[in-house]
Amino acid sequence: MTHPMTTTTFTLDGYRVTRNLGVVRGITVRSRSIFGTIGGSLQTLVGGNITLFTELCEKTRTEAFDMMLGHARDIGANAVVGVRYDATEVMQGVTEVLCYGTAVIVASEGTAPPPPPLR
Questions:
Q1: What is the torsional sign of CA 71, 73, 76, 82?
Q2: Which parts of the chain fold into alpha helices (H)?
Q3: How many domains would you assign to the chain?
Q4: Mean of the pLDDT values across residues 49-57?
Q5: What is the CATH number of the domain that holds 20?
Q6: Burial of residue 62 (number of CB atoms within 10 Å: 0-12, 13-18, 19+)
């Protein structure tokens, strides 16, 4: 899920922001399947990490992140700074996950290699 030109901070070491392109986002809405709900409920009886829900959360966050990168790429960005996630339960068992940040164009300050394109 990581990309070297994304960060939760507002700077990238070795690069300077030359242009701010604005907010970009990726939004996905997911629900648990009946099997996932039953399996997750059974795992709560044992305790510990509920792997079915963990995997669902990871897939959902990855999807939102990738959508955000696509949005940034579409407007010509080569980096995204200030990346954040937010989640809201739309209805019971249905969750919206939002990944957002600021799309920017960065240039090397001479100490870092040229920025790779967003993929």
A1: positive
A2: 34-46, 51-74
A3: 1
A4: 72
A5: 3.30.110.70
A6: middle
